[in-house]
Amino acid sequence: YPITSYYIERELKKFLNGIQGADYQADEQMQVCTGKWGCGAFGGNLYCKFLIQWIGCSIANKEMRFMCQTE
Fold first, then answer.
1. Cα-only R_g, the chain
2. Are 31 and 56 within 8 A, CB to CB?
3. H or E segment to which residue 9 belongs
4. Less crowded by CB within 10 Å, the N or C end of the chain?
């Protein structure tokens, strides 16, 4: 996918909807554990996806724990 403002906004909304599925406001210490979201079969840009997740966690005021498998 080309990295456009539409693409970034769409992916950010998807991420925020995903973390809002959990009652993240009930536990202020709850972390968001994530990884190379959308970068495998879907061919997402690792750096862009990382930044989207980091921005989403910042908006939600949550610590992000980025984990990935050894390649």
1. 12
2. no
3. helix 5-20
4. C
